[in-house]
Specification:
Layout: H1 3-8, E1 16-17, E2 35-40, E3 44-46, E4 50-57, E5 65-72, E6 77-85, E7 91-97, E8 111-118, E9 124-129, E10 135-137, E11 142-144, E12 152-161, E13 166-177, E14 181-185, E15 188-199, H2 207-221, E16 225-229, E17 246-255, E18 262-270, E19 285-289, H3 298-306, H4 343-347, H5 350-357, E20 361-365
Helix pairs in contact: 2-3
C-alpha cells in the first residue's frame, strides 16, 4: 500500500453524538453554539491505535454538521475528513486509526485535528483546532544481553531399534551452551550471538576467516522474519514502512575475544569424518572449509544451535517435545539438511521480544517456502 493511499485509508469509523437535548425537536434547532473544545483522547499513540477526537459545543439545539479534519502536521496535508450530524447535540467523538507517515521521531508531532461547524446551508459558523497534537511513537531503544534461561539446551538421545523399527528414548542426553543478545534499535530488532573462536593447532585463524564465515552465516538467516504488533488495528493491511509497529528481525553473528555467549573450536581443512564421529561438526566444533559430506548450510545450522534451536532430523539433538516415531521433519529447513530458516525458528524469539518491548507481537515469516 502506498503512503498516500494508506493516509487516505485512515479508519472512517462512525462519529458519535455523545449527548443531546432530552426533548430536542426541529423547532428548537436555532441557536448557533461555539466550539468549546477539540482534543485528542491521548497525546501519544502507537501506529495502529484507535484514537478519539473529542469535540464539545457550548450549547445544545443546533441543526448542522461537524466536519472533523485530520491533518498530517509534518507536511501540512489533510489526510482525512469526517462528518457528524449535530442534531442538537453537545459532545461528539470521532475514531481515527493512526499510522506513521513521516520517518521523523523524537518528539515530532504527527496529527492535528481541526473542526468546522457548518449550518444547514453548509456555511462555516465556527471553527477550532486541537490545542495539542497527536504523536505516533514506537518503543524506546532497549537491550537485553542474555535471553535463554541458564544459557543451555538439553534434550534426550533417542536410539533406533532395528527389530521394532522404532525409536526409544535413551539414558543419555545432548547438551550445549547457547544464548543471544536482543536489542531494539531505531525500529529494528537485532539478535546477536557473540561467539569466541579458538583454533586447533596447527590451524591459524585470521580476520579473513571470520569475515567470510560471518557473511556466510548471516546470509542464510537474512530477511527471514519481522514482528507485527498484535494491537495494530490495520492488521495484515498495515502499510507501516517506518518500523513503528512492524519491526524487522536482524540476526547477527559477532566473533569476539571476550564477553562471548558461546565458544567454538575450529579445525583446519575440511571434515573427512562421518556423522557421530569425534570431531564431527557440532555447535562447539567447526571446520575451516565445507566438504560434500555435510549440507551447504552447515555453519548456519550450527549457529542455529547457538541461538538455542534444536536439530530437525532423526537421531539428532531434537526438541524434548518431539517424538521421532511420529514427527515429520521438513528437510528444506536449515536445522535439517536444507538451508531455509523456518517459521518455528523465528517463533522462539517472540517471548523475549515481548518482554523487551513490553508489548505483544506476532511473527511474520517473510521467506515462506
Amino acid at each position: 500500500m502506498s503512503e498516500s493511499s494508506t493516509a487516505e485509508a485512515m479508519l472512517v469509523s462512525m462519529g458519535e453524538m455523545v449527548s443531546v437535548a432530552g426533548d430536542a425537536v426541529a423547532s428548537i434547532f436555532s441557536a448557533t453554539p461555539e466550539i468549546v473544545s477539540v482534543a485528542w483522547s491521548k497525546k501519544t499513540c502507537r501506529c495502529g491505535d484507535v484514537v478519539q477526537v473529542n469535540v464539545t459545543l457550548s450549547s445544545e439545539g443546533f441543526d448542522g454538521t461537524l466536519v472533523i479534519g485530520v491533518l498530517d502536521h509534518m507536511r501540512g496535508v489533510k489526510i482525512g475528513n469526517f462528518t457528524i450530524p449535530v442534531k442538537g447535540g453537545v459532545t461528539f467523538r470521532q475514531a481515527v486509526t493512526s499510522i506513521k507517515l513521516v520517518d521523523v521521531w523524537g518528539g515530532a508531532f504527527d496529527f492535528l485535528a481541526a473542526v468546522e461547524l457548518r449550518d444547514a446551508q453548509w456555511n462555516v459558523v465556527a471553527e477550532k483546532s486541537a490545542a495539542e497534537l497527536l504523536t505516533v511513537v514506537r518503543p524506546a531503544n532497549a537491550l537485553s544481553p542474555q535471553n535463554i534461561s541458564g544459557g543451555w539446551r538439553t534434550c534426550p538421545k533417542w536410539e533406533y531399534d532395528k527389530k521394532t523399527a522404532l525409536w526409544a528414548k535413551g539414558q543419555e542426553h545432548y547438551g550445549w551452551p547457547c544464548n543471544y543478545q536482543l536489542e531494539f534499535k531505531d525500529g529494528e530488532i537485532i539478535v546477536t550471538c557473540k561467539v569466541k573462536l579458538t583454533a586447533r593447532a596447527p590451524f591459524v585463524l585470521t580476520d579473513a576467516h571470520k569475515a567470510r564465515w560471518r557473511a556466510e552465516i548471516e546470509g542464510y538467516w537474512a530477511g527471514a522474519y519481522e514482528v507485527h504488533r498484535v494491537l495494530c488495528k490495520w492488521g495484515l493491511q498495515c502499510g507501516c514502512t517506518y518500523h513503528c509497529c512492524r519491526h524487522p528481525i536482524v540476526i547477527q553473528c559477532e566473533f569476539v575475544d571476550q564477553g562471548e555467549h558461546c565458544e567454538v573450536e575450529v579445525i583446519g581443512g575440511a571434515c573427512d569424518k562421518e556423522w557421530g564421529d569425534t570431531d564431527w561438526w557440532c555447535s562447539s566444533v567447526w571446520w575451516e572449509d565445507w566438504s560434500d559430506n555435510v549440507p551447504k548450510a552447515v555453519r548456519a545450522h550450527e549457529f542455529g544451535h547457538l541461538l538455542g534451536l534444536y536439530d530437525e532430523y532423526l537421531g539428532g539433538a531434537m526438541s524434548p517435545s518431539v517424538d521421532p516415531n511420529t514427527v515429520t521433519f521438513d528437510d528444506r529447513s536449515v536445522m535439517s539438511s536444507g538451508a531455509a530458516p523456518m517459521k518455528n525458528h523465528g517463533g522462539t524469539l517472540i517471548v523475549s521480544i515481548n518482554t523487551l518491548l513490553k508489548d505483544k507481537f506476532y511473527l511474520r515469516w517473510l521467506r515462506p517456502l
